[in-house]
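Exercise 7. Predict the structure of histidine kinase from Cereibacter sphaeroides.
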Amino acid sequence: MLVALDKIFAEDPSPYVLLDRDLTMIWANAAYLRATGLARDEVVGRRMFDVFPAEAESIPDQMLRASLRRAVEQGRPDHLPLIPYPIRNQDGRMEERFWSATNTPIKDAEGHVEFILQNTNDITALYREDRTSSQPNDQARMLQRAEAVTRQNLELGSAVDFFRSAIDQAPSFMAVLDGRDHIFRIVNQAYHQLVGRRDLLNRTVREALPELDGQGFFELLDEVFLTGLAFTRLAAPVLLRRGPEIERSFVDFIMCPLRGPDGQVRGVFVEGHDVTRQKIAEAEVIETRERFRTMAQTMPNHVWTATPEGRLDWLNDRLLDYCGRTEADLIGLPPMAIVRPEDRPQAEAAWVQSLAQGTAFERELRIRRHDRADRWHLSRALPIRDDQGRILRWIGTNTDIEDRKVAEEAIAGLNAALEERVQQRNRELEEMSDTLRQSQKMEAIGNLAGGIAHDFNNLLQTITGSIQLSLRALDEDHAARPRLDQALRAVERGATLASQLLAFGRRQPLAPRVINLGRLLRDADHIVRSAVGEGVEVETLVAGGLWNTCVDPANVETAILNLAINARDAMEGRGRLTIEIGNSFLDDIYTRGHPDLEPGQYVMLAVTDTGCGMSPEVIERVFEPFFTTKAEGRGTGLGMSMVYGFVKQSGGHVKIYSELGNGTSIKIYLPRSLEAEDAMRPLATGPMTGGTETILLVEDDEQVRSTAAGLLQDLGYSVLQAKDADRALTIVESGARIDLLFTDVVMPGKLTSRQLAEKTRGLRPGLPVLFTSGYTQNSIVHGGRLDSGVHLLSKPYTQEALARKIREVLVSGASGPPEEDGLKNIHVLVCEDDVIIRMNLVEGLTEAGCRVSQAGSGEAALSVLQHGAADLLLVDLGLPDMSGVDLARAARALHPDLPILFATGDSRVPDEEFRPRVAVLAKPFGDEALLDGVARLVGRRPHLTMNSA
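Solution. The predicted structure, encoded as tokens:
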């Protein structure tokens, strides 16, 4: 190439020099060397601005650099009609010279600028001559015009350079496209980075970025150019080639039309931002959030998140289902909004403290369930922070610890009881009263009392029978009779004490009847007045239209008498006693504070005195057994606890209103009965009588059996004796004459007393049965009430009570447990989420002959019912996907007459809406209670096989 230049320009009188892209001079002709006064080796191989330096940022420096840059960037010749530029003269001094120059780009085969051929002419003499001439000629004017244009070009070039620099430094990508073909004229660095550092200038968009074909961008540019309307798009996906690969990016951009002086669109300005990282980050955030939510939805715990200010912004489905609320109900509320109202102030204070300090939150609290039950949970929350330590969000969980809390309370109670037993007995009983405020501890003491009463009553029965037999053998004036009479009265006091033990433990066998309390009070009025004495004025008030109630009349009379005597003592034998009976309604607001009380209609019995009143401390303990404010020897402290136990066992409620110095009012609420009042049977009168019938006596206690046999034989009866049910059944099977089966309820052996009665009735249809016991458990007593048709003589009994009861049973004919039909082929659907409990239920029902379907969730149970009916639905209240009550409603919608048996540890079951074919089976329960509950609902009689002793 240089040889060719030598041939072409060697002898050319006009100076030429060849520069590469780095502005290194690689060739110069002779005219150029003469014009500059330099030798070839002083020029070739050196950078132009090193050989011809000019003051940095001076006008000559700016003009020459700008012209060279334009030639390279635009790929076409650039002219400098006049440029002042100093060069060094022969004596070494810098001399300002004036030049006219043309910079012509030389391109390679691919069209890229490879060299610049500069033609420069020294016009210093001409310029100075024209400047000093008084009459410039055309040539002078041309030079002046060239000078002006040169300076304007320099200013314009500076502006363009500033504009280019500003565009290049802009954070957003920019490009100026010229003409209908959209030729790149200006492209900044950000745009180059976006498209992958390729040559764009002076190329059309379709040529420079062919991969955009089919993505709609070419069409958008055409539309903006033709319509003159700007177009904006956010997060637009675009496929761009970067190296060998096509990569996906996201951009926000705007395309604006560029107009010329005539208002016509000349090009398009493109500006925007690469938001790929932002979109990827957003996608990662969304993915992370969805991963968290998926994990949170599958967790067995409640999961929630809150804003930095402590407001809920998300909850998992398990928490929403538990609360029975929707997201719309809870979003924006503090997390403590679902806590039990009584616990909420302390929980909110702890939460506010965690928010203020930015520390983890951890607290045990009770959370209200959709059925208004409260369960203990361990609530934890941790703050999530950004790189600067600012809290972005709170993530919290609620873990159900109800079972642990119950176990801890039970263990604590057991430890306390064991420790008290090591100490003295009196202190044990006093400290045990503290635990009686909780219903489960009352249950434990009731079981203990029942066991004591059983053994105690057997002892008393032996003593009673022996004394009475001894008295019958003595003359009326025998010296030992007063002592035996005194011993008999002591036995009666012991029997009363045992009865009171059973009463406060809610284990006494009640014989409720539908009665009118007004008539009962009228009949007992003389007893009350006699008990309180003449110094107490007694007033009775009975409301009109009084409702009936179903209770044990004897226990009601005892309760009234106990309350009246307590009132007499509080008034020290003088004052006013008011007994009032009326109708009452206990609403949801009142019963909400008493978990074991259902809202509804009640008959209210109020006993009010004008005595000394009670302090709050006394009121708090008044129902505790053995607690009394009376002097030693004046009371056992069991009267009020017996009243409390009887009322609670009857499904009622007791409330005390009292102030020191202003008297006391005790109100008893007994559930209303819609049935008609039972006719009162007259009490047996006249002398006791015996008979000549044969009685099969079954009693495991040898002394009690011997004494009972003596009493019966003294009455004239023939007695066959057996110490357990197995031996008694052998006697029955022998064919011996038997007119009545008289059996203890609780006995050892393979057969229970109830099973003995069933088998005996099978062998001797119509045979009368009389049960006796000091503690009946659940064999012939369910829900604290004697089974229908069952005769019971409670221990200890006198010979007169024994004589009258036996004649009553013999006269009334066959009695005892109704004949059993069995549960064979009864289809029971068991819905219980606990696998072990469900297996036990299924096993017990299957052994009884039932056909059993089982389900672990409400949805699975409904699927069974949709494909066919069942004879009974046995359902737990707490299911994983819905409550047992909701399942019962859905089941009744499918099968309106379906009997429903709720098996639950929750005492509050809204069973009213499902009546009459509904029952509640309180956990824990045995097979006998289970089968009995099923039988009652389906109208069958179960063949019970479980030992009820």
